[in-house]
Prior knowledge:
Distance between the termini: 31 Å
CATH class of the largest domain: Mainly Alpha
Order of helices and strands: HHHEEE
Amino acid sequence: MTNVFDLSLPELTERVTSWGLPAFRAKQVYAQLWRRGASYEEMTDLPRDLRERLNDELPFGFELLAERAADGGATRKALLRFGGQHLVESVLMT
């Protein structure tokens, strides 16, 4: 199964438009993923049914084990598991 991070913006646009949705939805998803580091649940500017379909058909490819915010939300730390075994700690500073 393809995960969303394997897709370029043109590939994501092709996938989303094949679902009968406008191309701008792909740009919204892409920006939320790569600029905000948002989960599908956090993409509240998208319709709920689209968020559910994205989650079902284009998973992230990792499991979020723990998350912590600091500096009033400007810094987010996460512990991720890839492939069921590899652990990675990630920090996002905005």
